[in-house]
Amino acid sequence: MKLEVFEPAMCCPTGLCGPSIDPELTRVATIHYVLKQRGFDVSRYNLASEPNRFVENVKVQAEIANGLEMLPLTVVDGKIVKRGAYLTDEEIAELTGLPVDAFAKKDGEKPKVRISLKK
């Protein structure tokens, strides 16, 4: 399965920049990290930094010709599955076969993601 998300122009994909944190972008970044760690082919494309990805994909190009409110746009194996919003945790779980608690909040806690910093 190949999951691609085409996002509107923004300064960063994590939601950690700017005057306030966008919890939806943080949730999406966490889900994509978890999916990559489990071997899924996932990509996020930002209109501001990767406009060529939008132009190269004929279906995405046709969608945004109708207006940028279609973004974010989620494509799974070449088929558009969601327009104008990110997939929910439940939708991701259904697509991937993973339990929703693999990347969802548990009892109000955020999922813990281990990262390593390279020098």
Describe the structure.
By secondary structure, this protein is an alpha+beta fold. Helix content is 30%, strand content 18%. A four-stranded mixed β-sheet has the order 2-1-3-4. The chain is globular. The model has no long low-confidence stretch (mean pLDDT 85).
Question: Which features does this protein show?
Answer:
single chain; 119 residues; alpha+beta; four-stranded mixed sheet; 4 helices
Provide the fold topology.
Layout: E1 2-7, H1 23-37, E2 41-46, H2 51-56, H3 58-64, E3 73-76, E4 79-83, H4 89-96
Parallel strand pairs: 1-2
Antiparallel strand pairs: 1-3, 3-4
As an assembly, this protein is single chain
Helix residue percentage? 25-40%
Anisotropy-based shape: globular
Question: What is the mean predicted local confidence, pLDDT?
Answer: 85
Radius of gyration equals 15 Å
Briefly note the structural class of the backbone: alpha+beta
Enumerate the strands of the largest sheet in spatial order, edge to edge or round the barrel: 2-1-3-4
Query: What percentage of amino acids are in beta strands?
Result: 15-25%
Count of helical regions: 4
Q: What are the segments in which pLDDT stays under 50 over at least 5 consecutive residues?
A: none
Largest beta-sheet characterization = 4 strands, mixed
Query: What's the order of the H and E elements?
Result: EHEHHEEH
Q: End-to-end span in angstroms?
A: 33 Å
